[in-house]
């Protein structure tokens, strides 16, 4: 089997550069979906249900993209065609989704329009995101994978940082952060427009700069017998049965981690609006007490959540440089998740917007570990021609916990809610911290390939 040659830094950079644009789109979605649907009129107890669609799209799309791209060879490449098509769809939807409240539709129609747009947005983001992970597995040797995934992690966090701060930045330069009831503020709409433009430019750059290995050379680098490969019928269920132990043991840890972050994305906006900015209460159409989403305090909190998520991304970048100093990947994993758990629980006691920086810096430690360590452990345990399919299937360990958390989030929040009072969304962040502690306890059973 031929060895994959070492690649220069800029070749490794180019493989992942488009990830910067994709992550801006993902960050805008993560930080603003609860804000958008709350503004359209969603009840806080129903917010988590809107979050079911993104991971549901991911669990369906990514294994399909992985399996299809494993068998795709074109003059444009193997993974890149899927990346480019996904990016084009994402750009179109990013221009539509934030305008859900601006087309003169009823509240119900605007909700449906927003849901359909969200489904297409997350499907296309997943379609564009997965090829970057696969290209590292395809084109980078074992010695350089750590560096390649570090570059990807840096670009991921840099893209997140940009996407998170756009609404706050636009509001500081005079673009309105408030709007009529049921309409998304211009600061959010323009953020999606700019994010869409950056996304397509980054993807065009990667498409122009990266040349994937042709089929024969790829087979030589990965020890694949072409005749046997043609006879072999890929069956995802058979591949799951044959999956290395690392696939399942890391997957268990992933379950608790991604459920925790689903609660963060869903309930941080309401937590900050109520506990820090003192958003006023109102009565919604169903007669329940909720926060007034048309108030300046609520929309200011929405902008500040973007800043907090940006602080989380900064914390993740800093902690990512510390993780390699640990002698044991598993110890790094445990410490990272415990710090993140402390960050989540601390939000219960903090009522100052700037002190929340400490909480989200700690949460960033967990995020850094979740971005780097699972894929490092898994790709080291994988060989053969099904890298893309396995990485697509592994995405199930990210999507399933989010689906479970989104399905149960509203019911759990109702248990915490006292009749006649605003739902205490901060309790969901405390629960997220507890879930990270449980995930840290499960790290001990991970089976690594030595």
State the main characteristics.
450 residues; Growth Hormone, Chain: A
How is this structure best described in words?
The protein has 450 residues and is mainly α. It has a single domain, classed as MFS general substrate transporter like domains (Growth Hormone, Chain: A). It is built from 17 helices and two strands. Strands 1-2 form a two-stranded antiparallel ribbon. Helix 11 (245-275) packs antiparallel against helix 12. The radius of gyration is 22 Å and the shape is globular. The chain starts with 8 loop residues before the first helix and ends in an 8-residue tail after the last helix. The relative contact order is 0.17.
Helices and strands, with pairings:
Elements: H1 9-40, H2 47-50, H3 53-70, H4 80-94, H5 107-139, H6 142-172, H7 186-209, H8 215-222, H9 226-231, H10 236-241, H11 245-275, E1 281-283, E2 289-291, H12 296-322, H13 329-346, H14 356-381, H15 387-394, H16 396-416, H17 426-442
Antiparallel strand pairs: 1-2
Helix pairs in contact: 1-5, 1-6, 1-7, 1-11, 3-5, 3-15, 3-16, 4-5, 4-7, 5-6, 5-15, 6-7, 6-12, 6-14, 11-12, 11-14, 11-16, 11-17, 12-14, 13-14, 13-17
